[in-house]
Amino acid sequence: MFIGIGTVVNVGTVLAGSVLGVLVGHRLSHRTRDLVTDALGLVTLLIAISSALTVGDEALSTAVGDSAPVLIVLGAMLIGGIAGSLLRIEQRLEGFGAWLQHRFSRGDGESTFVEGFVSASMVFCVGPLTFLGALSDGLGRGADQLFLKSVLDGFASIAFAASLGWGVAASALVVLVVQGLMTAVGFVLGDVLPEAHVTALGATGGLLLVGVGLRLLKIKQVAVADLLPALIVAPLLVQLLIVIRS
């Protein structure tokens, strides 16, 4: 497989789900949808744990010392979480999505195309899996997270398209652009950052993904978006420790 395959599959599932939603309507029962979401939440935790365990990779421990990797992830989560909370990232993202939906929705019921486009674009692109999955794909660490997101988005697009029509299918273009850009960023970082820095970034991202799994399972509504700055902090802490040790 090639870098970017995750986004290609994601776009495909959104289009396929939209077509199914428009043609056959919303046929899945509430119980079935809950069961599917629970299953995806469990798989998300599996992928998250696999990613988080890379904190024990030799490349990272060699660069910063045997006892430092876990402290780096802890520091990144704390510093990134505080920064994200002060910046109110999650609240701003949710507010932006609500503003767009309100701005472009038509109160007269004349057409739901724009409403479907905006609503679906926000759901598919304003979420931690979008950033974590695309970065992981771009870094060459696999597209498992985006494959998981593709299944989620596929089911969601069926439900959206059943009530809002073909505007949901148009949101696939936004998915392509946003995730394509994030994958490109990951690809560039993979060429620029040393392996130890990339490992710290991946382990931190895996821990954030645990938060996504907990949300899917309705165990805890972790404000994962507020923790996204940790992805920037982790490589910086690695570099700081390398400088101190040298």
Automatic annotation (TrEMBL):
Residue intervals passing through the bilayer: 6-24, 36-56, 68-87, 113-135, 155-178, 198-217, 223-244
Alphabetical keyword list: Membrane, Transmembrane, Transmembrane helix
Superkingdom per UniProt: Bacteria
One family name in Pfam for this protein: DUF554
Protein name: DUF554 domain-containing protein
Species whose genome carries this gene: Kribbella caucasensis
Classification of source organism: Bacteria, Bacillati, Actinomycetota, Actinomycetes, Propionibacteriales
